[in-house]
Write a structure and sequence with these properties.
Layout lengths: L2 H20 L3 E2 L14 E2 L2 H8 L3 H4 L3 E4 L6 H9 L3 E5 L7 E4 L9 H4 L2 H7 L1 E3 L1 H6 L6 E5 L2 E3 L4 E2 L5 H11 L9 E4 L5 E2 L14 E3 L4 E3 L17 H6 L1 H9 L6
Parallel strand pairs: 3-4, 3-7, 7-10, 8-11, 10-12
Antiparallel strand pairs: 1-2, 4-5, 5-6, 8-9, 12-13
């Protein structure tokens, strides 16, 4: 068995163990119920996580946040809009690409609606990778939910690799760099003691925010490999337009 296969088996086992505890504090999704393989759940105390992160200098000093479309980050998206911050976000599964939520272009009474997955596309602006390059978009902080994370900042998502792909795409077009901070929102029960070895494309997190605490981890280098086309799942390429666009742009990956 290869090292890569061993890592993936370890991740799968860890996810299953966390999900047994997560279901006790998770909020069901309207579509996926408690199927944690299909969505990142909101959880009891996520409002506390949002309040804590809003006190962090990374949040206070930011102008443009990338926030994944995870359930546990809906309140953060709402708060960010109220605070005048622009949000870069993808649709579920990145199927319809990237969108920009610009608070100056959204009526304030629609901020809460705009922060939801059902509402964002009705008020946000669709933005391509080429648009981001032309507009010199610069993301200050990358924020994600995740299935589990350890004290090294190594994430265990749903197993699809969406956040890793989002990082790789934004890194390749220079909207972020290897020093761009990454933040994970999780419940306490999703934080693991076990040590793991990240794969070359794993986007580790610098800050972990939970329902009860917030702490930075010892830094691990972020991926600088971009999309590894030879190992990219064909279904992801076929269903994610920005990946197809990036392939066509044929850009060199920054060093």
């Amino acid at each position: 068995m290869s090292t890569t296969e061993e890592i993936r088996i370890q991740k799968s086992d860890s996810r299953s163990n966390v999900w047994k505890e997560l279901i006790k504090v998770a909020k069901p999704d309207s579509k996926f119920h408690f199927n944690f393989a299909e969505f990142i759940a909101d959880f009891e105390g996520s409002s506390n996580a949002t309040k804590q992160f809003k006190t962090h200098e990374w949040y206070k000093n930011s102008k443009l946040l990338f926030i994944t479309p995870d359930n546990c980050l809906e309140e953060l998206r709402y708060e960010a809009l109220k605070d005048g911050k622009t949000i870069l976000i993808t649709t579920y599964g990145i199927y319809r690409g990237f969108w920009l939520l610009e608070p100056s272009k959204i009526p304030k009474e629609r901020y809460e609606y705009a922060s939801t997955l059902d509402g964002l596309e009705k008020v946000a602006r669709h933005i391509t990778l080429q648009n981001m390059i032309d507009e010199k978009l610069c993301v200050d902080v990358m924020i994600t939910g995740t299935g589990a994370i350890n004290y090294q900042g190594i994430r265990l998502g749903k197993g699809h690799g969406f956040f890793d792909s989002e990082w790789a795409m934004l890194y390749t077009i220079k909207a972020i760099n290897k020093n761009t901070p990454t933040v994970a929102f999780v419940h306490d029960c999703q934080v693991l003691d076990e040590r793991m070895t990240p794969e070359v494309f794993d986007t580790v997190c610098d800050l972990i925010v939970t329902n009860s605490t917030m702490f930075q981890v010892d830094s691990i280098a972020k991926p600088t490999c971009g999309i590894i086309w030879d190992v990219l799942d064909k279904h992801m390429f076929d269903t994610i337009p920005p990946l197809q666009e990036l392939k066509a742009l044929n850009l060199p990956v920054p060093e």
